[in-house]
């Protein structure tokens, strides 16, 4: 379980990106942070693996305060998948997937064998292993990104708009794959999107954010749809549902 307690983040230029945010993210579920651009979603997500450090408040993973864990250690335990897959263009698919395990000292042969298994897991043909990212479709690149996120065998997978850059049909496919993966692998997934439909499709827990990471409402999709907590939420989830 991940717990934010009264977390705030002020960047050096004075921007208060997150103001007194508290949330419990249960293990082995998908929690979606959804809100418009600038609401603080990415900042919140990046605090979990210390790509961003909070200015105040406490953030714990399974009772352990993240500020006491070295970022490099955290990133060995936590997978991170971002928009545009973040793949290294000059490395083959298989090397991209194996990057972090190799940095962690896993021997090449073993890291590659695992990478091939992960290609199966995310529905990528093993024949693509020797290609470079630019030789893949956008959807395939995102699958490689997910495989890379899983390569450290994390309990927690952070996903920042991972399907934002692919066309709607591929996107629907990737969303279904993620649901399958989560059921099979039993990961704690924290997923960021600005798309409320995606949030309702994927989230066990959906957290609707306003500026400054203020929680407008949180709950299951059914709870939010049945009983929007404010006009803001009602308009965000769409009056025509
Ligand atoms: P979202 O992911 O919801 O679009 P972000 O977490 O990226 O929101 O940003 C929240 C706010 O913090 C925005 O106002 C953004 O401009 C600001 N912000 C994000 N990163 C930085 C940074 N490194 N320095 C200064 N301000 C930042």
UniProtKB/TrEMBL annotation:
It comes from the Bacteria. Pfam families: ABC_tran (PF00005). Its EC number is 7.6.2.9. This is ABC-type quaternary amine transporter. Keywords: ATP-binding, Nucleotide-binding, Transport. GO terms for molecular function: ABC-type quaternary ammonium compound transporting activity; ATP binding; ATP hydrolysis activity. Residues 2-237 form the ABC transporter domain.
